[in-house]
Specification:
Order of helices and strands: EEHEEEEEEEEHHEHEHEHHEHEHEEEEEE
Number of domains: 3
Strand order of the largest sheet: 9-10-11-12-13-14-15-16
CATH class of the largest domain: Alpha Beta
CATH topology of the largest domain: TIM Barrel
Cofactor: [4Fe-4S] cluster
Helix content: 10-25%
Number of strands: 21
Protein name: AmmeMemoRadiSam system radical SAM enzyme
Radius of gyration: 20 Å
Largest sheet: 8 strands, mixed
CATH architecture of the largest domain: Alpha-Beta Barrel
Pfam families: Radical_SAM
Distance between the termini: 24 Å
GO molecular function: 4 iron, 4 sulfur cluster binding; catalytic activity; metal ion binding
Number of helices: 9
Shape: globular
CATH superfamily of the largest domain: Aldolase class I
Keywords: 4Fe-4S, Iron, Iron-sulfur, Metal-binding, S-adenosyl-L-methionine
Amino acid sequence: MDQVKRNQHKPVIQTLLLGVLVFILASGATDDQRAGLTEARWYKKLGNRMVQCELCPRRCVISPGKRGFCRVRENRNGVLYSLVYSQPCAINREPIEKAPFFHFLPGRERLTLATVGCNQRCKYCQNWEISQAKPEDVPTRTMTPDQVVALADQLHLPIICFTYTEPMVFYEYMYDIAVRARAKGIRTAVVTGGYVNPEPLRELCRVVDAIKIDLKGFTPEFYQEVCGSTLKPVLTAAQTVARAGVHLELVNLVVPGYNDDSTTIMKMCQWIKDSLGDTVPIHFTRFHPDYKLLNSPATPVTTLERAVRIAKRVGLQYVYIGNVPGHPAENTYCPHCGRKLIGRQGFTVTGNNIVNGRCRFCQAKISGVWN
């Protein structure tokens, strides 16, 4: 997952972009939107003012005055509301490579945006200060979908990226931004844990351009112990995105002692090839201690290199190592001729030999969104 800079969200709206202090105004917002309120799209009424959220696999049944597991969807007198619509807590400009997306508009910058909230409880979350917060715990200011798109346009940023926390919990806000961005010719990308029901995801896929799913592990036990969630819905989400034809990349954060054994990695890679295809990029990312896993060691680079070998042996064509700046496995290589196509140093693209979606050297087609 993208890491938000510490204290970047305090305060969000006076954000330094292009060296210019940008003040986001609340004009154009309804009173409810200024308060962060908009009616949720995915829920049903159960009677006696009870509601059931249908956005994610938890399907929370929520009593009047109470909130769902994500902390940002509240039942008010029998109507389910999002509490974070038009209320970003973090906004910035960053390279698309930081997401990471390596096969989606490489070398471009993106406007990044998040609200508070998440529907998982990952013990190693880098952004726990905002992902595990309630809306009233973090400073925000109103920024409507139109204003988000206008800001990206003003700064000549070709991508708006929903990231840092869990974008699915601010679904309505994300969806409306994506619709307006597409009308302006601005692409949208989503960085998500993929813990979402198929129906909302299919609808979202109609309006966004790229989705990166954190496939955090490949056993039910890992998801239950480390993330407080379940594996199967995430696998279904990845299949849903792939079938929709939206650009998909996967990240697997390799945590020593939790999800780093060769057998599990091989099973995961085989599933990716069989269920999603051999051209879906997979990033094996180095873990660094954070949040509730402070006593776990950082991932040895040799472990990541072993994961890359396993993935390539299974037959995946685009396999990367993340959080190890300067490693050769940051680069993109042609799966046909083996030549380096995109050179990277950390989040910086140092060279690009993909021309019109093809290898400059052998003319093989390279999977991705390049223009």
